[in-house]
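Quality-control log, excerpt.
Job 1 of 2 completed; input and output follow.
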Amino acid sequence: MEYIGTTEAAKLTGMHATTIKRWARRNYTTNSQKILKEKTYTGGYRYKINKTFLMENFKTSDRPSSALSRSDNDKNIINAMQDHINTLKEQLSEKDKQIELLIRKK
């Protein structure tokens, strides 16, 4: 049996890590063979989840169809930022031209 941590489980399912931790905490008592609970040095708990059990409970069809994958979302953010940067560069170029004209008039 392969067990994975909540961070890896979140990446695998596309769900948020907090959602996975909450789900593991709620399902631990009835599925202690499939969800392992380890105490951390800070007094909290770390969950390890059986990968097969996780995938049975978090099928990709459980996610909203409108949800973007992280990489798609990252690409959209990068494109928006690049567009904004290009706009700022154009504005800066225009301001430089205006300053140059003002200097020449003196």
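Job 2 of 2 completed; input and output follow.
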Amino acid sequence: MLGELLPHSLNFQMHQILLETRPANRARMVAMKNATDNAKEIIKSLTLEYNKLRQANITKELLEITRRKWRLLMISNLKFQITNLST
């Protein structure tokens, strides 16, 4: 009799263990999905911030180039005018 009950008892216990691990696995999968989604959102936010800073630096450099070009043009024009005044 015990020989017949032991396999059924082990089978029942194994079934119980499997049933108990399902919710834990599900919770782990949900936690991993949430972590992945959060990481994607952080990457998206940081990429946007990086691109904004990069664009601001590009704009700043272009303005500086334009100012220098304008300054050189003004100096050149002033020299031309001075040269024409003295002749």
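Post-run check on job 2. The mean pLDDT is 88.
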